[in-house]
Amino acid sequence: MTFFRIFGILGGLSLVFFSIIPGHTQTVSGQILDVSTKEPIVGATVKLQNIKETEIVKYQPSDNDGRFRFTGLTHAYYKLQITSLGYKPFQKFVRVSSEEVGVGKILMSEDSKVLDEIEVVGKVVPVEQKGDTMQINALAFKTNPDATAEDLISKMPGIVVDKSGVQAQGEDVKKVLVDGREFFGNDPSAALKNLPSEIIDKIQVFDRLSDQAQFSGFDDGNTTKTINIVTKKTMRDGKFGRIYGGYGSDQLYSSGGNINYFNKDQRISVIGMANNVNQQNFASEDILGVASGQQRRGRGFGGGGRSSGRGGRPGGFQRNAVGTGNVNDFITGQQDGIASTQASGINYADAWGKRLTMNGSYFFNHSNRNNTELLSRQTIFNNSSTQLYNESNVSTSSNTNHRANLRMEYKINPTNIILFTPQVSFQNNSSTDQLKGITTSSEGSSIADVLNSYLTDANGNNLSGNVLYRHAFEKKGRTFTINIRGASNKNYSDDQLNTVNTSYRGTLIGLDSINQLVPLAGNGNTVSGSLTYSEPLGKQVQIQTGYSISKTNSDANKRTFDYDPFDETVNSLDTLLSNVFSSNYVTHRPNVGVTFRNQKYFFRGSLTYQHASLISDQEFPDLGKTDKRFENLLPFGIFRYNISRTKNIRLIYRSSTDAPSTTQLQNVVDISDPQFFSGGNPNLNQSKNNMFITRFSHTVPDKSRTFFTFLMLRNTQDYITNATFVASKDSIIENGLLLKRGSQFTKPINIDGYWNVRSFSSIGVPAQWLKSNVNLNFGITYTREPGLVNNDENIANTLSLNGGIVVGSNISENMDFNFSYSADYSQVKYTLQANQNNTYISHQIGAKLNLIIWNNIVFRTDYQYQTFNGLSVGSNDNYSLWNVSLAKKFLKDRSAELMFYVFDILGQNSSITRTNGETYIEEVRAQVLKQYFMFTFTYTLRNFKNPDQVDH
């Protein structure tokens, strides 16, 4: 009998055993409401203390409905204490003599003394640590009247806002909630850029548990870094937003806005924009064309450390991104090239009765882009020579995307809940590329050049849905959940390629042309399901056992036809460049885990046995089949120690596996760029990851100080990287194809030895003499990236150091400034060629000022200076980006504004990207938007109900 079967039998027996264990628990629960508005008070500190003991027995913040619940209590008398900023403290004695003690609705009234102190003296605790949640009080950070949520959080400790997105405590923020509810799905920028800062009461930063873990109460380690925006209770009923329109030089325009309607549980938000000044709102679902374009260039991008500087707005320096061709670069903010965009979206949230709550959003995005790129690349060999490649590429693209998501939670009764979360997206992308590339030796002699014309018309759709059912037994902590998920995606494109490739050996020796029509089709389907059961053992221990199964099927069909562009006729099928391929990846995962918790400690450990099969079938041009089986033990552990109310430390260990994609497995060669062939590898294995994370946070509320540090270590076995073959002479490669001298062929392979170590630390302190808040951050990243060049292993070792300071004013809404400085140092060492080792440094200075001066006249300016050292020889760069505007506010409550704006006064805006791969060094300079001016009219809507007018 296999280990898998034994494990399954033990899991089944444990289900039966724990389902019959008797148990009793005593609980105390209640709900905290504002006495005037009857709105829930979120984040109130609730303490429960046995009157015979000196230490607090239980401690927790109230949830987003103002509710609290203490479990695992013994028969005794307890003192219940509740405190919340701006409210009078509440205290009550509670006798616990039955299994469920409900204290009902607790009405708290405002403390006028505290409120007066806040208003007059201006003292408020900026940061509080509530268990695993860092809560930041917005009242402690002053911003200008037009500030957004993004402007506000950029001043807060431990939060970094730049072009790549938002980071909190060293991790990317993947989700933004508003009062505990999703807002525009998985698009953090939609909430942060469209919500005004004035409605925000608190910002909560935490690791959100998966829906499965929230249902079962058993932390499975699948967390998402999340920001929850807690709105002011006086601004949860009303209408607010802004609309704007502007026109400027060279027929440039920008228009858009957002309207929000909040009415208790019902919330409707509408956003939109139309412009040709590079303002965009892309998300990962919007980049089919981007991903396709990167794939067809076929240069085997595989990883490494990257340092890049891009123009467009302050904060554009991306710190040591791992990998290249990263689609995350296209998510939001100004991008390379010149783009016009039309986008709109709507978000709807409501509670339909007491049982059904729902939240859904829809996005539309259309964008046209023109771009010119200059690329320089050095390929590293195992001798003293190198090969240089220079390219210019003129491209256009048109992209249209529709995407929608929904979240519905239905409470059948208090013990049975169903959660349904479907998502769908449709996309079309048309693009053209006109490319000219030249390959030379390190001595400067020409090897080859290529003229490449590429046209593509692609479309795709993605559909997914998740159904989660939970049954809670009468015994607290005993739960049973069923999770079923399905996903389907389809992609199709018609690609047309026209290429002229010239080869040299001192003089012209060869001229080849390629004319092809390539229809590509790909389908993928995933079905998965899981069963979990949790059981409490006593007051502090809970166990969970479960079983999950997942099956993913992927099909890829690539047929390449010779094409005559003159008479537009399709000729014979090229079997060497055609392939029909499918893969199936199936996993079985029984698991068992245990949780222990008390006032100081929390521990959760689990062990999963994974049996996986990867079956690949090639149907054309030849029949072939690969059948691989993998067995892994995947441990997981999390330990949290609450050193005190203001200090805690967390340790996490996780192991996981990644299966290769169909594109990586498909045995077909892409020759769209004759100097850079690429292909798949059907013999790839899955990779296994081992990751260790530690976090420490410390807040000093009375001194308004915060400290946070984060360390992550990751090792990957059978890491999927690239093997590159550079032809020193004309050579025959896979499928009998001819690779010309100087050209490269790249395919994915498995190699051990990938390491990534990353640390991040931040310190937040007040600067009373400057009436400002100071945030310091520092990080270290080390990456060990293996690869092969002509069968010789080359390891790129990249060490990066980065640090910075942000000073945010806290003077008044009439004077708001931010100052920032950051420095990035990167050192790259290669094992094949030490003479290619390189060090490069970047410095960036940013300043932003908003000043309301005489007679409602507003002066705004932002400035960024960036300098690079260590780029390609003779190209160390620096540039300044300076923007200025002058505006006049008028109408009642200064709701209207007329502004004159100048972008890039100095005309120096630039874009530079530096990449260090496992076998190459690359630099890209791209087209950016240059100087322009614009007149803009903006109208701001603020119409909130007075608290006394809110229906109770």
Give descriptors for this structure:
26-stranded antiparallel barrel; six-stranded mixed β-sheet
Low-confidence stretches: 1-24, 114-122, 287-334, 947-952
Helix count?
7
Shape: globular
Q: What structural category arises from helix and sheet content? A: mainly beta
Q: Compute the separation of the termini in Å.
A: 65 Å
| Main sheet summary | 26 strands, antiparallel, barrel
Quick recap:
The chain is built from 7 helices and 54 strands.
Tell me what the structure shows.
The chain is mainly beta and 952 residues long. Among the domains are: 3-113, Immunoglobulins (Immunoglobulin-like, Sandwich); 269-275 and 283-550 and 669-944. 6% of the residues lie in helices and 64% in strands. The chain has a 26-stranded antiparallel beta barrel. It has a six-stranded mixed beta sheet with strand order 8-9-15-16-13-14, covered by helices on one side. Strand 27 (479-505) and strand 28 (507-537) form a beta hairpin. The longest helix is centred in the N-terminal third of the chain and has 17 residues, at 3-19. The radius of gyration is 30 Å and the shape is globular. The relative contact order is 0.12. The model is unreliable at 1-24, 114-122, 287-334 and 947-952 (pLDDT under 50).
